[in-house]
Here is the input.
Amino acid sequence: MSDLKKQYDLWDEFLAVWPESRLATMTLDEYTKAGSKDTFTYWMEARLDKMGSIWGGSSFKFGIYSRKVTDEKPSDATLRYSAEHAWYTALGDTAEQAFLQVRQGIVRIARLAAEGDREAIGALDIFGSVYRWKIAFHYQNRQAPKFVNIFTRAPLRALVGDSASLNADMASLQRMVIANKPPESGILEYGQEMWETWSRQNLVVWKLSHGDGSFTKEEQKQYRESALAVMHGETGKSQGKKFVEVPNGTLFYLCNSNSPQLVGQFTSPALPCSKGPGWLQRSFRVLKLAQRTDPYTESNKGWSPRYNSTFSHVGRPDLALFNQTLLQPYFGISLAELAALAGEPLETVEANPKPVDDIDIEDEADDDEQKQAEEEPDPSSVPASGRRTFNRIYYGPPGTGKTYQLDQLLKQDYQSANPADADAAAGPAKRYRFVTFHQSYGYEEFVEGLRPVLDAQSAGQIRYEIRAGVFKELCAEARRFPGQHFAMVIDEINRGNVSKIFGELITLIELDKREGAAHAISLTLPYSGEAFSIPPNVDIIGTMNTADRSLALVDTALRRRFDFVARMPDSRDDEKNAPLNGLRVTLDTRSIDIPALLTRMNQRIESLYDRDHTIGHAYLTALRGAPDGMRRLELLEEIFRNKIIPLLEEYFFEDWQKIRLVLGDNQKASGQDQSTCFIIAEDDPETELVNLFGANHGLESFNTRKRFSLNEQAFLNPDAYIGIYAPAK
Here is the structure.
């Protein structure tokens, strides 16, 4: 039986044990139970790991988890502990309350996955991104898959390759990758192909040797069980220097002389080791233990166990040989599977970690305490609300749904569904502030400044007082309610002078500079002289219209401190949740395909200008509100006449010839018939020049500019719109 067939069978077994219908009645012990191999979390992390690994990191990624070590731990504003469980404080005061929130989140993800709604899954705040997409992958419709088993952005960005992917969110990246899946390919086959493609291009693997000449058998066992990679800092040929310099997350395989032992991943910097002067150690996490440890007898290259080297890089040309002679025979995994195991984000661990239990080669997941260790997440970006803070900018051309998405986000995360439910303890009903940046907006309005006021006690004399700006007021409110998330929403963030408006706050907004973070900073404000810092539960959300200013021109300091999420025109006609899916305008026997129309117009705009000046789908979504037929055609006429053509005039600076190209008018005219052209081009014949300038005008007709005019009849002619994407032969 092939390995992929085994994985499909295991997937079927999981769905038989954990069908979507069971999730709503799942109990806490069924979700997480230390030592049990039947729980939902054990399935996700251990039994289904070959279909996309979520190993590593904190067990708080599950929202709540069962503690194997039941010693007393103090709770705080972020994390809560009982004797049996640990969970995010924001999820509830008791384990039962927290689990109720977790279960609702899992039910929601599974339903959205079955519906193929990637955008809705991406917008959810429950759980971390990796766990959320892992759940979605296994509850999708396998016959019409919407998710590939890659749950981090870096490999997906590399696979897409387009510059549009650089700042794309996970939902967009999943859509881009799935769009390239051959129809005949199964989702696991396609996922394996994607991992193999990425690993061949990007995987970096090193050899590390704890050789018999430098380590006793006891030392080899001790360092292996303690998950410590040990090496002398002055090892020749710069090997010691490279051991220090390679970053956390670097992959390596460990061998004892000629005997392969494990594949690991560095999780700490190099620090002095007790082995002796000059010796260094780095912590690592075990990705895979060797299935056999007999001497390696194949290649004698520098990276092989046979070669007399301590720390050596497997070159890209040798990855196939490494895979064939060492990785698969000794560890039972391929480069693609190794890439999947290593593809998750790492959390730095203690410089001197406690020894981990030796793992049984036959069942690596036996030690639930090791695999679900009680690691606490980095507090620099996890406030008491229990989810990570973010600075984010939604960018794209006009009409791509930036404001709509922001409105949905605010309703979901930053305001009470029923304002009457808000009280002094739970926080205000509306937990955000909304401003629009413009050329005159400044530091005084945003942070603090002097404001003129009339002094009632001095006969109307004007005096000046220091007033807090909108952002400073929001931060003060957020401090009073650490269990809630607040948002500073900035519309048109690229239209203001960011350096002038933010001032010294450009440093404070970084997540690791927030209150309570590892590198927290407090600065003195220039007007009030007060010490000021930013609470960890304040998100900063901006929108940016790329037609006003290209993303490339955005202030560099701003780019470094924000995530950028692209909102591009969505003219898909093959997904149920796409905004224009199935949208047609029908009149008699003529049918206007709205997705095809928008796609072709935007393709032409990208060729003539750029993708920042395309036309958003939101201009056309209003058509759904009109009954199909003449009324919908009339609404389409209004949209083209009052919105789209004026927008094209602005884009092309009234270069009507280019506007005609975008509308396909140059391909519609047949002889003198321009009835389906939106823009009619007219030459000035000699008789017209005489009428305008007299007989002795001295002008050549080919030197005069064409005149352009709107063709009123075309706006209610279905063939004028059809001709945009399907020109007459």
Summary: The first strand starts at residue 64 and ends at 66.
